[in-house]
Write a structure and sequence with these properties.
single chain, alpha+beta, binds copper (II) ion, 172 residues, 27% helix, Immunoglobulin-like, 5-stranded mixed beta sheet
Length: 172
């Protein structure tokens, strides 16, 4: 009788352990599923001759897009949205489209000197177009003509941000 009790306790323990590890595995799987980054639309919504682009920036200093493609001759309607909560002073984001041949690092270093102008260097021919600087929860839209065919860099000119906040703007 004593022996039987021991065995049944043991098997109960094994059963319990098995249950436990199953649950763990399931949880692990769920976490993996949740952490899979959502594939954002890189192709933008297109109307006649107008390419609409939605670019977001967050509190983790990241854009949602690393590449924006538009057609030559199109008008581009670009909306930048700061989807974070941090202030413009600590985590400001903008969109700056740089002319070809611009040295990104040099431009970034120059931008730091223009705090009073929202980190947009004055009298420069390195900028094709830019948005204003946004804080958490803010949004702005600019419309401009796509530059000629080719590859351009876009960045956020807030100090230090272009290390992560940069991408290619491709006109085809
Ligand atoms: Cu930024």
């Amino acid at each position: 009788m004593k022996m039987f009790k021991k065995i049944s306790t043991l098997s109960f323990a094994i059963l319990f352990a098995a249950c436990g590890s199953n649950t763990e595995k399931k949880e692990e799987k769920e976490i993996k599923l949740n952490s899979t980054p959502k594939v954002e639309e890189t192709k933008s919504a297109k109307e006649e001759g107008v390419t609409k682009v939605r670019l977001t920036g967050n509190d983790q200093m990241k854009y949602n897009l690393s590449e924006i493609r538009v057609n030559a001759g199109d008008k581009v309607e670009l909306t930048l949205e700061h989807v974070g909560k941090m202030s413009v002073e600590t985590m400001g984001h903008n969109f700056v489209l740089l002319a070809q041949g611009t040295n990104m690092q040099e431009f970034g270093a120059k931008a730091v000197e223009f705090k009073d102008n929202n980190y947009i260097p004055e009298s420069t021919d390195n900028i094709i177009v830019h948005t204003k600087m946004l804080g958490g929860g803010e949004k702005t839209t600019i419309t401009f003509d796509a530059p000629e065919k080719g590859e351009y860099d876009f960045i956020c000119s807030f100090p230090g941000h272009l290390a992560l906040m940069k991408g290619k703007f491709i006109v085809e």
